[in-house]
Amino acid sequence: MANVFEVPAETKKENHLEHGNQKTEIVVMLGARLFQKGEGNKYPPRFPLINESAKEGMSKEVSGGDSRMRAIQQLYKEFSENRNNPSYPQEMHIFTTGGEESIKLDSGEILKLSRAEEARKKLKKKYGVSDVVLEGSLPSGGSTLGNAAAIAEWVKEHSDAISEVHDIEIVTNEFHIARAWIMFMMAFYKNEYKHDIQISPEDIQEIENILERTLANEEDGDKKELEDIQKIFEKYTKDLPIKVKPLIVEDILARKSESGREYARQIKNNELVKESRTKERDGIKDLLHGRYKVK
């Protein structure tokens, strides 16, 4: 079992204030690709197949994607520690996401696996997350847009069975967080109002300006990008009954311990992560200009 770290008192207090009076915590871990053996550790944000994952402790390189699972492990730990505090959520539902992966074996056979299901199994077996909080995978088709639409529909269908929900937490890496948040907000908007959100040309231009001016800032440009885009979206989404709360993997890892902070630094400094920052911004532009839509 992977090591579990103590949560600093000030972090627990911060989490307590963030949760407010919501009694049900819903967490969506965005997916990643699989790799089979020890290869691929330089490629974010992959995670290994469960039966190939014998290695414990800190990775020498960027995790290969276990970073998101370690973040989920930490969130589950914090939930469990505060279970008897009535001011904290009393229920937790964790969703894994990801489509089907085709892996060619040495024998030539093609193995088809669900990334979401492999992540779920690994969260349980390696990271000690209980079956009680692990939900089944979402029928998303393997895309972030599909994940967003599926979780919005799940909340709607289960509204009578779960306590009142004001926000859904999405967990992903910092370079991906802004685009993921936009997709989820678009899906929640469409689920509520039955039509796509209409962003004005002036606001689209301002968002594109934000994308350009934050790209050069490798230290905290992605966080600034998210904050500034959230301010623009507020006027469009302020009346939504359920909001999307972005949780950045690197921030969650950094509050675990010094090794967690070092792990987060390794991710931020990875060259392919840096390259992905540009691709993510291009993806946001595609969203804004309708080159693909929430289905």
Helix/strand/pairing category: alpha/beta
**Chain oligomer state:** single chain
Taken together, the total number of domains comes to 1
Q: Please identify the top-level CATH class.
A: Alpha Beta
| First and last CA, distance | 39 Å
Describe the biggest sheet?
4 strands, parallel
User: Which blocks of ≥5 consecutive residues have pLDDT under 50?
Assistant: 1-19, 38-44, 50-64
Separate helix tally: 10
Report mean pLDDT, rounded to a whole number.
80
Task: Output the CATH topology.
Answer: Rossmann fold
Radius of gyration: 19 Å
Shape: globular
Q: Which range does the strand content fall in?
A: 5-15%
**H/E topology pattern:** HEEEHEEEHHEHHHEHHH
Per CATH, the architecture is 3-Layer(aba) Sandwich
State the share of residues found in helices, binned by percent.
40-55%
Strand order of the largest sheet: 4-1-7-8
